[in-house]
């Protein structure tokens, strides 16, 4: 009985650590820049990439070192 409980606890621990490996979000900067944050926010929800678009469900606008705003996609 103790072995079964220990094995179950070990299995649950293994499943919990599986989520840790997947938790690292991938990010992609989309080509093109915007002169204002407002323009970036207008296009942000509609941005699609050619490969793996379904892997990225979140977007945000970030200002680059050149002063332009860029759309970033993340999983």
Topology of helices and strands:
Blueprint: H1 2-22, E1 27-29, H2 37-43, E2 58-63, E3 69-74
Antiparallel strand pairs: 1-3, 2-3
Percent strand equals 15-25%
Shape: elongated
- Ranges where pLDDT stays below 50 over 5 or more residues in a row are 12-23
Mean pLDDT, nearest integer?
79
Measured between the Cα atoms of the first and last residue, the distance is: 42 Å
Overall structural class, as computed from helix and strand content, comes to alpha+beta
Q: State the share of residues found in helices, binned by percent.
A: 25-40%
Please give the radius of gyration in angstroms.
20 Å
| Helix-strand pattern | HEHEE
Count helical runs: 2
The count of strands amounts to 3
Largest sheet: 3 strands, antiparallel
Strands of the largest sheet, in order across it?
A: 1-3-2
Describe this structure in words.
With 75 residues, the chain is α+β, with helices and mostly antiparallel strands. It has a domain at 25-75. Helix content is 37%, strand content 20%. The protein has two helices and three strands. It has helices at 2-22, 37-43; strands spanning 27-29, 58-63, 69-74. Strands 1-3-2 form a three-stranded antiparallel beta sheet, with helices on one face. Strand 2 (58-63) and strand 3 form a beta hairpin. The longest helix is centred in the first third of the chain and has 21 residues, at 2-22. Mean pLDDT is 79; it is low at 12-23.
């Amino acid at each position: 009985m103790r072995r079964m409980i220990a094995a179950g606890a070990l299995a649950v621990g293994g499943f919990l650590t599986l989520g840790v490996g997947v938790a690292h979000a991938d990010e992609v900067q989309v080509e093109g820049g915007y002169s204002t944050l407002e323009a970036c926010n207008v296009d942000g929800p509609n941005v699609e990439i050619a490969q793996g678009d379904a892997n990225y469900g979140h977007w945000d606008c970030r200002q680059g070192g050149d002063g332009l705003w860029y759309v970033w996609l993340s999983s």
